[in-house]
User: What shape does this take?
Amino acid sequence: MQYEPIKRSLGKFFAGSLFMRKTLYFLLDLLLLRTWHVKKALRKIVRQFPGDASVLDAGSGFGQYTWRMSKMNSRWNIKAIDINSEQIEDCNRFFGKTGFSGRVKFYTVDLTALDDLNCYNIILSVDVMEHIEEDVLVFKNFYKSLKENGILLISTPSDKGGSDVHNDKEESFIDEHVRDGYSIKDITEKLSLAGFRYIEAGYTYGKPGNISWRLSMKYPIKMLNVSYLFFIILPFYYLIFFPVSVILNIFDLRLTHKTGTGLLVTARK
Assistant: This one.
C-alpha cells in the first residue's frame, strides 16, 4: 500500500496560507498517537535544556515537529533536514511567514551523508529509520553530530507489528519501509555500536494505541488508496471515530506497555 502519495496529496491540500498549514499541524497533533508520545518526551527534554540549545530535526517531513519545538523554547535554534527537497522548500516558505525563520532553517540533506560535527544538543528523528537501509551509518552520523551529553530521541515502528506485519507471510502496510520494525535489543545494540550510552527504549502503541491507529490511520488510508473521492467522506468518518481514538490515545500515553507496535528511544552521547 502506498502511503507517500497520500502524504503528498495532503501536503498540497494544506499548503499555501498560514491558516491551512497550522490547521494541518493541529490535525496531525490530534490524530497521530506518535505525536502524543514524542511531545511527552520532548517536555522532559525541555527541562534539561531550558536555555540556548541547538536542535536537529532529522527527517522533518511536513515540519510539524520543528513547529512544535520552535514553540516549546524560544531560545532553541533548529536545523531541520529531509531528503525531500520539495517539502524542504515548502517548509522554508511557511516558516519564512511565521517569524521563526531567524532561528529555524530547513535544508535538503541525506542522513547517510550528514557530516555535522559536535553541533547539536538534541536530535529528533520521528518515523525515519524504518526507511533507511544503512541505519548504523546514520546512528554514527547522529553520534558525531551531537555535542557531549547531547540527547537523541527516536520514534520508530517495533518488530511487534509496527508496519502491520505480524508473521513472515505478511507484507508491510507501508510499501516505503525497508524494515518492518526494530526489536529493543536490535536498536539498543546498534546505538551502542555507534557510541551512545544511557540508552532507554520503551514500547508505544500498546493495545489501545493499536486500535486507535487502525481507526484513525489505517482504515482511512486504505480507503484513500482505493479512491481520492473518499476525502469527501473522511470528515464524517472522523466525526464518528475520532472521539474513540482520543480516549484510546489517552490510555496508551498513560499506560506502560509490555509490548507495542511502536518504540520510543532516547540515548545520550
Observations:
- The chain has a mean pLDDT of 89.
- DSSP finds nine helices and seven strands in the chain.
- The longest helix spans residues 234-254.
